[in-house]
Design goal:
The protein is α/β, with parallel strands linked by helices. It folds into three domains: 77 residues, THUMP domain-like (Alpha-Beta Plaits, 2-Layer Sandwich), CATH 3.30.70.1510; 74 residues, 2-Layer Sandwich (VC0802-like); 113 residues, Rossmann fold (3-Layer(aba) Sandwich), CATH 3.40.50. The chain is built from eight helices and 14 strands. α3 crosses α4. The longest helix has 21 residues. The two termini are 26 Å apart.
Length: 291
């Protein structure tokens, strides 16, 4: 089994009760995504982190990089919080990773009562790594190192890793209720994706020839979307019908991608998430959506 340390952002800013609810939603979404991929995992947590033990590391990375609410994750090695154990492990670990004439830095954090400080970890582990790789000409560079070695001590456990992979961030899908999303092209799909990133579950209304929603399915735990009735045009009358449908489904808002026709309904929110975004920003977001 491979262990991943998973970080979340906004969830940690909520009140205790709300944080627990959102964290539970995030854990459930990760577990459902593993079930979708027919792969085993075990998810645990402490304040500020989730820990995913995965039978398949490649599946785990594919799941985590497509799970809303995950800000970043790292594949980690787990050892005890004993300073001797930490130094012994990083000595061997660094020899396998540091190459000739490379520079490195120790980035340490500590939570709990261990009898030493984060600075103590950095100094002792750093000296151990330097001496173990002295013949390679390896040196310390705290400003612009070639390799960073992260050491996080949390109570009686230590997590060691060298890389952080960015997740999509946002809020866990399903934590904020339902919306209706009209989709007819990539821009409207992107608008839907941006609302999904805020935790909303979409009900898709296809416009015209039924558009492909596969790109959005990649971002749901089950790999599926709820599809509503297809429409052949978008005007004030159709918008009224969509809103009526949405109200029956207890949706909170309508999401549209275009900006040519701005519809306003005082009794029902209509969102245009891509309005105001520049071409470069839109292009970057579209690449992320397709990833």
């Amino acid at each position: 089994m491979d262990l991943f340390l998973v970080r979340y952002g906004e969830i940690g800013l909520k009140s205790e009760a709300v944080r627990r609810r959102f964290e539970h939603c995030l854990r459930t979404n990760i577990e459902k995504a593993f079930i979708r991929e027919r792969s085993e995992c075990k998810v645990s947590s402490d304040r500020g982190h989730l820990y995913v033990n995965a039978a398949d590391a490649k599946v785990a990375e594919q799941v985590l990089v497509h799970t809303f609410g995950v800000t970043s994750y790292s594949k980690v090695e787990l050892i005890s919080s004993d300073m001797g154990s930490i130094c012994s492990f990083v000595e061997k670990w660094s020899k396998e990773r540091l190459k000739k004439n490379q520079t490195f830095a120790i980035r340490s954090r500590r939570v709990g009562r261990q009898g030493y400080s984060s600075q103590d970890i950095a100094v002792k582990a750093g000296e151990t790594v330097r001496l173990a790789n002295k013949e390679k000409g390896v040196k310390v560079d705290l400003s612009h190192p070639d390799v960073e070695i992260f050491i996080e001590v949390r109570d009686n456990k230590t997590y060691i890793y060298a890389d952080r992979t960015e997740g999509p961030g946002g809020m866990p899908l399903g934590s904020q209720g339902k919306v209706i999303a009209v989709i007819d092209d990539e821009q409207s799909a992107l608008a839907c994706w941006l609302i999904m990133k805020r935790g909303c579950n979409p009900i898709i209304i296809p416009l015209g020839k039924e558009p492909s929603t596969e790109v959005l399915c990649n971002w749901t735990p089950s790999g599926q979307l709820t599809i509503g009735p297809t429409i052949d045009r978008l005007d004030e009358n159709v918008i009224a019908d969509i809103i009526q449908f949405g109200q029956k489904k207890r949706a909170l808002a309508l999401v549209l991608g275009g900006s040519k026709d701005l519809f306003k309904k005082k009794d029902f929110p209509i969102f245009y998430p891509v309005i105001g975004l520049g071409k470069t920003h839109l292009s970057d977001l579209m690449k992320r959506l397709r990833s």
